[in-house]
Amino acid sequence: MGDEEFFLCMYAKYAFILIIIFIRLIGGASSLPRSALFFLSLLCYCITILVNISLILIIVLDKALHEPMYILLCAFWINALYGTAGFYPKFLWDLFSPIHVISYSGCLLQVQVDFSILAFMAYDRYLAICHPLDYHSIMSMKRVIWMTCSLWLTSFFIIGVNSLLTFRLKLCSPYINRLFCVNWSIVSLACFPKETSINGIVGNITIIIFIFLGFYIIWSYMYIIKICYNSIEKRAKFMQTCLPHLISLSACIMTILIDIINNRLSFKDLPQALQNFIAMEFLVVPPLMNPLIYGFKIVWLYHLANFHFIHSC
Predict the structure, then answer these.
(1) Residue 35: Cβ-neighbour burial (10 angstroms; 0-12, 13-18, 19+)
(2) What is the Cα–Cα distance from 209 to 277, expressed in whole angstroms?
(3) Does residue 175 contact residue 166 with C-beta atoms inside 8 Å?
(4) Domains of the chain, with CATH numbers?
(5) Contact, 158 vs 199, CB < 8 A?
(6) What does the record give under GO molecular function (predicted)?
(7) pTM of the predicted model as reported, rounded to 2 decimal places
(8) pLDDT tens over the chain, length 313 residues
């Protein structure tokens, strides 16, 4: 086993241990003091920042990696950093704060959505495998960057509309039974339920948009699998480039579905530990595990990092 594979295995081992311990602590399954939870949370956050920023910098600094697929991976990791930045700092502060308070505007800023980049990744792989001759003419660098920025702006616009509709509501309670802010958990505190009808409509439209994206992604990969079935070369390409996307997609869809069901139906009978796990899974697990999921690329990127480090010394 080479140094790269050893690094990958060790990262997988310790990331998995961190996630298990963190979930047990946050679920109340441990009697350890808050200082232990603070240290572990801070460690998770630091590792998340270090690993994701390192991979982003490697891709940005190496011109050989300025390809559509790696630009999209950069966008994916930036999105992970954005999501964790909205949760960890406030959570770490609250661990030692006697009063767990967040401003109304600050609460709305914590709300975030991550799905559209996975759809763009599916389209990228569809073109690369099913239309390889047209790939570079369609997926030019300018077009990829423009599309990625458009996806971010669209997501922020959707979140902004939902947040503005929520901001106008008069709330009858300052308490949210969540570890962090979610738009629907704020809407449910409205004094006049009739005023939330427009929020429900816009929220359902948002859900439909992301369901459509989900079906599009699934259709794309089903078509890719059909194309690759009779070709050994294309099957190998699929396993190397598409399998990590499918794993990330499956985790993302399951988390979103469970969280939507939990928010809309309010399963109050669920144990608090399970509710905490459902609430935090997509903020804690993916940013730590996505670098491992894309392990094919990490080994190569780690090799490039060593190469650059050796030649810079």
Answers:
(1) exposed
(2) 26
(3) no
(4) 3-312 (1.20.1070.10)
(5) no
(6) odorant binding; olfactory receptor activity
(7) 0.71
(8) 444 444 455 555 555 555 555 555 555 544 556 777 788 778 888 888 888 888 788 778 877 778 887 888 888 788 778 777 877 887 788 777 766 665 555 554 444 545 677 778 788 888 887 787 788 888 888 888 888 888 878 877 877 787 788 878 887 877 766 666 667 777 777 887 777 888 888 888 877 887 888 788 888 888 888 888 777 777 777 776 677 777 777 777 776 676 666 665 655 566 666 666 666 666 677 777 777 666 555 555 555 555 554 555 4
User: How many C-alpha atoms does 78 have within 13 Å on its Cβ side?
Assistant: 14
Distance in angstroms (rounded) separating the CA atoms of residues 114 and 80: 8
Do 135 and 128 touch, CB atoms closer than 8 A?
yes
Q: Tell me the two tokens of residue 115.
A: 């799905």
Pull the structure tokens for residue 121.
Answer: 């990744």
CA distance 125 to 59: 19
Beta carbons of 278 and 82 less than 8 angstroms apart = no
**Geometric angle at alpha carbon 121, from 88 and 43, rounded to 5°:** 20
- What Å distances lie between residue 213 and 71, 221, 253, 261, 293, CA to CA? 20, 12, 11, 18, 21
How many C-alpha atoms does 262 have within 13 Å on its Cβ side? 22
Contact 154, 172 (CB under 8 A): no
User: The tokens of 14 are what?
Assistant: 């310790």
- CA pair distance 138, 131, nearest whole angstrom: 10
> With contact defined as beta carbons under 8 Å apart, do 90 and 180 qualify?
yes
Task: Give how far the C-alpha of residue 31 lies from the chain's centroid of Cα atoms, to the nearest Å.
Answer: 30
